[in-house]
Amino acid sequence: MALGDNIRRLREERGMTQQQMADKLYVSRQTVCRWENGSRCPDLITAKKIATEFGVSLDALISDDDMEDLERISGAGKFIKYKRKVKLQEYQRKILEFLQVLGGVYLSISLILRVRFDMRMPVWSVVLGVCLVAGAFALNRRLVRRMEDL
User: Fold this and answer.
1) What's the predicted TM-score (pTM) here?
2) Distance (Å, whole) CA 51 – CA 124
3) Contact, 146 vs 94, CB < 8 A?
4) Helices (DSSP H) in 3-65: which residue ranges?
5) Are residues 81 and 55 in the same domain?
6) How many domains does the chain have?
7) Domain limits for position 44
8) CA neighbours within 13 Å on the CB side: how many for 51?
9) Distances (CA, A) of 146 to 68, 86, 132
10) 11-23 pLDDT tens trace
11) Are residues 54 and 87 in the same domain?
């Protein structure tokens, strides 16, 4: 949709005649007619006044795309971002649950070995536990950054 078509559509949606619009913008009715026909274009200041009068952005006024389509597409984009954020939050919840279970198992095993068998945890198990926890925290940190980017 061209600029002239947008001006005509917005004017008609508000139930204005070309003369009423011309009076508000301090131009002649013929000038409005030329804008709508596409034989002339309003200057930048007048285009801004038209956009303000109709309550739309200047981009929407001069856009060749249908404004409803743009709103629908931008709404779909927001929905996609929201779904992505929910998915990342679900991953984050699973990581934190994993850390809780891992910590609980590690604590239980270390207590059982210490109390029952008077043993300390082997070094390899401590290193493995630290690596798993560090990896989970790193993954969680990465998810938090991705959610901040959304």
Assistant:
1) 0.44
2) 70
3) no
4) 3-13, 18-25, 29-37, 44-54, 58-62
5) no
6) 2
7) 3-64
8) 16
9) 30, 12, 21
10) 999 999 999 999 9
11) no
